[in-house]
Amino acid sequence: MNDTTNQSINGKFLYYGFIAGSLQILQSQEELNQINVFPVRDKDTGTNLASTIRAVIDNIHPDKSYKKTIENIAEAALIGARGNSGIIFAQFLHGLSRETKNKQVITLQEFAESVKNSIPYMYEAISNPIEGTMLTVIREWSNFLSSKEDVAHDFKKVIVDSFSVLEKSLAETTKKLKALNKYGFVDAGAKGFVIFIQGVIGFITNRNIRDFAVERMETISLIHSEDIIDEELSFRYCTEAIIKEIRVSTGSLKQTLAKYGDSVVVAGSEHTCRIHVHTNHPATLFHKLKDAGTITFQKVDDMQRQQEIAGKRKWNIALVTDSTCDLSQDLIDFYQINVVPLNLNFGDKHYLDKITIQPEQFYDLLDSTPELPKTSQINERTFTNLYSHLASHYDAIISIHLTSHFSGTYANSVKAGERIQKEFKKPVHVIDSKNLSGALGLLVLKTAHYIEEGKVPEAIVKELNTDIDNARIFVSVKDLKYMIKGGRVSRPAGFIANFLGINPIISMNKEGKSLLFGKTFSQKGSLNKIFKHIEKITQGKSVWNYIVLHAHNLEGANKAEVKMFAITGKKPVSVVDISPVIGIHAGNGAISISLLLTN
């Protein structure tokens, strides 16, 4: 529909109207972030809404059919939805798509009716719907559209007039919610919707499609708030996922999520839905949900770390690593280390290493699955998003990763670092540790100490080159079946080794490649061989620190700790369960010693 006095809307008009509203949100991110205080004062509503609509902009194209266009918009929004407001907005669009007749062109009366019928979809998606939010504003806007009998005759006038209803409803959100009244703000998600409709109205009244098509090509990046957020969190992790082939009701899903946290939203259809919840235990939650359907996507934001980045930074250098770094959570939290998870897939079920799957859940699944799970590297976009956020707050970034011979994670981190360094004019140092697990953990910990001591980034990187040469890791494998499953050991060789009772010792060479250090006829024998070698290599050198690691074998780790104390005279910095990504190949029962030597 090019002439807004016409009584129908086609797909292209809907598409460009949506783009117009989306651009308004992209341009208003900072404003929305600043007023975001409900349900959590994390100042990211603008960024989350922008991320949601960018998923639509980047993935769909104009189509003549209204029905096809609204379906494409709704699907892209659901997949790309982020945050509470983003998912509610996506659910509103999902309701529109479901309540639109299968037609190329719809009348304006049919449009108003589909808006009205989409309202229950939003309310049903939320475990605890609260008035004074985006819900209220969209509902009251819908009521206005439905009340206008002349909507079929003068769509432009009705939509323009509806804006005063939106403004009034938005203003009243301050009175309806105590959290908003405390700061004198309106609801950020509700304002996002009002801004969106403002953009749509601007397109209807002032623009033609040709000019608008050129304007929308401008790149507008996601914006991260730099304000201090000082609020105690009830739940640490903002957790989201897409579940397909759902085998339980959405009501049951909401009940399960509510047991683990708050801010529960379940959006989408009975076949595919997107969930949102604030929780302290994402891994336990997803283990509970593993039989509810196929989890194809997960995203977890650490709101505690986001608070620290925004306003509680201990130092001016950001430290980043990946989830193959094995350190205790206490150390990670104390040094404010940003840990980016690798991806782990059991068949078509997706997990985030150490975030949505912890060792206790991992080994249960590992023993009950005929084939080994697959891992995948961290992509460049993930690093780009993190580094842009960190560069907005820190003077420099140091990022240390598992050996480049095992994963493309390091290469992707380098590409992202180069881009952000150029854009922000701040140094981003990406380091190949040529190691993994506990050895990587020690290198990250040593870097944290350098930062704590006040060393400049260039000096730290120089020191790290020496530290990398002095890092060691030895892994005593208890059961070869996992290495055979993963193809690290051939089945014939594995059969012979198992028959003979051989237990291999795995280490790393100077280039960061795996090395068969030795083999014995029992795990006890392989550990004794490791201890003897450690006694030899520590002669004339001191042990800066060491870590004892285990694959669901705490008893074995405790015995190794006693032996290492006798050798070094010091307690380990950590005794931790090996990362699931590493545990895939080490296998249940493995014991590992990592140490960092000094001259």
Automatic annotation (TrEMBL):
One of its GO terms (biological process) is glycerol metabolic process. Residues 12-202 form the DhaL domain. SMART domains: Dak1_2, Dak2. Gene3D superfamilies: 1.25.40.340, 3.30.1180.10, 3.40.50.10170. It comes from the Bacteria. SUPFAM superfamilies: DAK1/DegV-like, DhaL-like. InterPro entries: DegV, DegV_C, DegV_domain_contain, DhaL_dom, DhaL_dom_sf, FakA-like_C, FakA-like_M. GO terms for molecular function: glycerone kinase activity; lipid binding. PROSITE patterns: DEGV, DHAL. Keywords: Lipid-binding. This is Fatty acid-binding protein DegV. It comes from Labilibaculum filiforme. The lineage of its organism: Bacteria, Pseudomonadati, Bacteroidota, Bacteroidia, Marinilabiliales.
